[in-house]
Amino acid sequence: MAQQPLLTSNREISRLLAIMERLRDPETGCPWDIEQDYASIAPYTIEEAYEVADAIERGDIAELEGELGDLLLQVVFQAQIGAEAGDFTFQSITQNISDKMIARHPHVFGDESRDKSAAQQTVDWEKIKAAERSDKEQKGALEGVAVGLPALLRAVKLQKRAARVGFDWPDISQVLDKVVEETQELAEARAELTQTEVEEEFGDLLFVMANVARHMKVDPEAALRAANAKFTRRFEGIEALLAEQGKTPVESNLAEMDALWDAVKRQEKRAVTTG
């Protein structure tokens, strides 16, 4: 008789929890694992989340399976630390998220109708989250936006929170005007201000660009990752063309590499057209 998937999953989760408990055993565990705490593990959790996103973007499903396991391990690790400190357990974590998902999906688990668009469901989701924040007696509109988020993502979340209480430009043209203004201020800062002041102006420009992304419904993190990938692909194309000439970038110059960059772009466009 075939194993039931749920029973198999429960057994494997219990096995993973037992492995982590053993790794953290003060007498027989791993010295490195024993020394870790919430803060020391947090950077690894963030790194693993990005590696999950990277595997998805590359379409590497086999790699994705492994990265998801690595990310799950981070949750189990933090849960074990929490259990030892008496703060929470893996069971309380899973119970809380299960309760939250049921509460946030009344159209699936409750009496509300499922006959509404994904956009309307998103609006309803935000209303439920706002009610949850109200129950927690959060004092300010921006309270609860995690400080540890990537800066661009946090900028968008801060702007969304402010927009909910009416602090927002009604039209994207005003946001684009602000981009021009901040760009001019940065250009002036380069010549007249200290490095600290230049960095401040640059931060202002990035913050406004995040606002542009929000108004245009663009994920700035995803857009920048895509731009990074495109730059990497095209620069590697330059290196390949130079290699055909028996050269490296160090042996080339900006004018030649710029011309090769344009050649790589044309190749990409032809490939898209013929594909």
Structure description:
Helix 9 (172-192) packs antiparallel against helix 10 (195-215) and helix 11 crosses helix 12. The longest helix has 25 residues, at 61-85. Helix content is 76%, strand content 0%. The chain folds into 3 domains: 5-103, Orthogonal Bundle (Helix Hairpins), CATH 1.10.287.1080; 118-218, Helix Hairpins (Orthogonal Bundle), CATH 1.10.287; 222-274, no CATH class. By secondary structure, it is an all-alpha fold. The chain has 12 helices and no strands. One of its GO terms (biological process) is dUTP catabolic process. Pfam families: MazG. It comes from Falsihalocynthiibacter arcticus.
Shape: globular
- Kindly provide the radius of gyration, computed on alpha-carbon positions and rounded to a whole number of angstroms: 25 Å
Mean pLDDT: 89
Helix segment tally: 12
Count of discrete structural domains: 3
CATH architecture of the largest domain: Orthogonal Bundle
Order of helices and strands: HHHHHHHHHHHH
Supply database-style keywords.
single chain, 275 residues, 3 domains, Helix Hairpins, mainly alpha, EC 3.6.1.8
Fold blueprint:
Elements: H1 5-23, H2 31-35, H3 38-58, H4 61-85, H5 90-103, H6 106-109, H7 118-135, H8 151-164, H9 172-192, H10 195-215, H11 220-244, H12 254-274
What's the short story on this structure?
Keywords: Coiled coil, Hydrolase. With 275 residues, the protein is an all-alpha fold. It has helices spanning 5-23, 31-35, 38-58, 61-85, 90-103, 106-109, 118-135, 151-164, 172-192, 195-215, 220-244, 254-274.
